[in-house]
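Item description
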Amino acid sequence: MSTMDLPATPLRRWERFTLAERLGRALFYLIALTAIMWSFKTIEIIPEFLYDAPQQTVDLFARMWPIDWSWYFPVVHPALVETLHIATLGTILAVIMASGVALLVARNITRSPILNFIGRFILVATRSIHSIVWALFFVAVFGPGALAGTLAIAMHSIGFTGKFLSEAIEDARRGPIEALIASGAPPLSILIKGYWPQVKPAFLSISIFRWDINVRESAVLGLVGGGGLGMALDTALANLYWDQAGLVLFVIFIVVVVTEILTTLVRSRII
């Protein structure tokens, strides 16, 4: 039989997505577009306020300049030190509490599904509530000040820190652990000699990274009574002292940049 007598095979057409996938993507885009249009309608953007927004912004920065540097040492410097203390102490408390929760979540440490669920619930619950909301709660309980800000930072950081610590524990190599178990080592020795050397770099890196985040968050918690630079900024704004508000904003910007550089250098040395 010659090649001319063979039946012609239909050409196959390659498509990146199936019909169901194309319909799903179209439905997703339609829902996203509907949500965007609904959001614009809900927030009620007034065009008249947008027209003079550039002029108002320029006028606001003009009021902040020149910065009132005489306000730094009497007010801003103590608030800056308090902000760093809030971030540092809050991070330490969070790491201590998150370490215990991470041991509950790590399935190679805790075999009980009930305890795993309780640990994950704690991580999700603390992480889902914003630090400002925590600050409002602790201000209502303990009153305004650094204590409320510290506890807010600590509670909000448990979820983030505990999640990554538990993942680092679960990723630990099994070989050293099995060797310690075979030698009859007690559970505490297994944690210290088996898990800790493997988890230590991640532990330090996560703690430093969280401290960097907490410095930024603690700088604004004072707006709701959490102490630190936020209270100095709130005082300046309440009294319409724009040059002093500019000083606080400038200090916050410098602190964020410096802490970002420092934490990046330290984490690069650790990792």
